[in-house]
Design brief:
This is RanBD1 domain-containing protein. It is found in: Nucleus, Nuclear pore complex. It is a single chain. A seven-stranded antiparallel sheet has the order 4-3-2-1-7-6-5. It has a domain of about 120 residues: Pleckstrin-homology domain (PH domain)/Phosphotyrosine-binding domain (PTB) (PH-domain like). The relative contact order is 0.12. It is an alpha+beta fold and about 230 residues long. It is built from three helices and seven strands. Strand 3 and strand 4 form a beta hairpin.
C-alpha cells in the first residue's frame, strides 16, 4: 500500500533493471554479432574435419538402349558429283509479274557447280538452315547480267529455272554484301558462260526462246524496279 492510501501498482519496467534491457545488459541486443559456439562433436573429427565430409556419389553405370533401332541412311544432295567453282552469301529476289514487284526468294549461299564428268556448270542457291533450293539452272551463254538500277551490289538476269521441280522462266535479282563480292560473282559467272558455251551445241529449244523473252523483260524491269 502507498502512503496516500492508494494500492501500489506493479512497475512494468522493473524487470529491465538499471540498463532498461530485459534481454541482458547494454541496450537492446538481439544477439547480433554473437557467433554460436561450435558443437562439441564438430571438433572430434580433427582439424580437417575429414570424418564429417559427405560420401562422394558413385557414377551411374546403367545403360539404356533405344526401344527402336534406326538404321543410318545416307542422304544425297545432288552435289556429290560436282565441284564448287564459287560460293558466296547472297540474297535472292524474284520478280512477281502478277503484283508487278520484287519479292524476296531467300537468303543463303550461291554456288557455281561444275559436274565432274560432263563439265557443265549450273547455279545453285539454297535457303539458309532449311537448305531449300531457291535457284537452280544451267548458266547459259545467252544469259545477260544487268546491274540493278541504283544498286552496284546487285545483278538482274532472266533464265529458265528448275528450283520448283519444273521448268519456269524466272527474273532474278541477286544482291551481295559488298561491291567486291558482286564483281567477283560477275567475273566467275561470265567465265562459266564461256565454259558452257563450248560444251553446249544443241539447237535452240522452246526453253531458249522463253529465256529470250525473259531477257527483254529483264531489260525493262531492271531500270524501274527497286529491291
Amino acid at each position: 500500500m502507498a502512503d496516500n492510501g492508494e494500492e501500489a501498482k506493479p512497475n512494468p519496467f522493473a524487470a529491465l533493471g538499471s540498463t532498461g534491457n530485459a534481454f541482458g545488459g547494454g541496450g537492446f541486443n538481439f544477439g547480433i554479432g554473437t557467433a554460436p559456439k561450435p558443437a562439441a562433436d564438430a571438433e572430434e573429427g580433427g582439424a580437417d574435419g575429414d570424418d564429417n565430409e559427405p560420401a562422394v556419389e558413385e557414377e551411374c553405370q546403367a545403360e539404356f538402349k533405344p526401344v527402336v533401332q534406326l538404321d543410318e541412311v545416307e542422304t544425297s544432295t545432288g552435289e556429290e558429283e560436282e565441284d564448287a567453282l564459287l560460293e558466296l552469301k547472297s540474297k535472292l529476289y524474284r520478280f512477281d509479274t502478277g503484283s508487278n514487284e520484287w519479292k524476296e526468294r531467300g537468303v543463303g549461299v550461291t554456288k557455281l557447280l561444275q559436274h565432274k564428268e560432263n563439265k557443265k556448270v549450273r547455279l545453285l542457291m539454297r535457303q539458309d538452315k532449311t537448305l531449300k533450293i531457291r535457284a537452280n539452272h544451267i548458266v547459259m551463254p545467252s544469259l545477260q547480267l544487268q546491274e540493278h538500277s541504283g544498286n552496284d551490289k546487285a545483278w538482274v538476269w532472266s533464265t529458265v529455272d528448275f528450283s520448283d521441280g519444273e521448268q519456269k522462266v524466272e527474273l532474278f535479282c541477286m544482291r551481295f554484301g559488298s561491291v567486291e563480292k558482286a564483281q567477283e560473282f560477275k567475273k566467275k559467272f561470265e567465265e562459266v558462260q564461256e565454259i558452257n558455251g563450248a560444251l553446249i551445241s544443241a539447237p535452240a529449244t522452246k526453253s531458249d526462246e522463253g529465256a529470250k523473252d525473259a531477257d527483254a523483260l529483264a531489260q525493262e524491269v531492271a531500270d524501274k524496279a527497286a529491291v
